[in-house]
Fold:
Amino acid sequence: MRNAVVKQLGILAFFLSSTAHAGLFYSIDTASDDLVSIDSSSGHVTMIGSLGVDLFDTDLAMLEGNLYAVDTSLVRQTANLYRINTTSGNAALLGQLATATEGVTHAEGLAATASSLIVSYTTTPNSPTSNLVAALSLTGLVGSGTDAGVDIDGLTADNIEQFLFLDSKDSANRVDLYSGFPVSTIGSHTGVSGSNFSNDAAFLGNELFAISDPGLLHLDRTDGSLLSITALDRAGNYTGLVAVPAPMPLFLILGGLAAATMFGRSRSRSKSSLTQNEDA
Structure:
């Protein structure tokens, strides 16, 4: 019975880590180096806590209930991986990004599958283009890269692990949306309020959002067009975006525990019947 309960709790934990909270995102305010949450409906920004480190160009992803960030130092030409405490905001350094043969000089996109972090990056010195995509270990080791052929400024994946990424083209006043792999163009939208730089994208359920200078952008995932803008009520320099995992509804927890208990009793009765038959 104990094993059945543990198994059921493991299933509940999986859903807890993979279900998006209705309307909330995590982001980083690099002006104050704080972890914040953003309400997608109202634009209300809640400060969670200080990171304890100075970050500049950050992307976020959730993996197995943990919040991770990659950040690039343009001065040092290095990129680091952090795990962020979602209660205190504290960022713990896990490692500097590098392939098996060379260091990563710039990393702009971070997403997650069910089992791994995925990063967009480059190893070319003084290059702002993050065109390579690879799996990222929790120590900062980057796997074999695939060339996307475009500069990835924001990377995300939907619930069936289809990757979408943004390329902000400042000179053309346009943000392009792609899917891959192989890479195909979905569409684009023009710059907003004099700024078109979208630095990260994230799904909230099936809806696609991006964080940009004007605020939170709601995008049409089928053609890349801009559906709406939600202005933020707290001034800051926000980079990185990922949906906040939802708390498991109480009735599902109780239902799961009840199912585990019934399963355990059923196994006990089956074992008892088998023992009696052997004795007979």
Q: What stands out?
A: Confidence is low (pLDDT under 50) at residues 9-21.
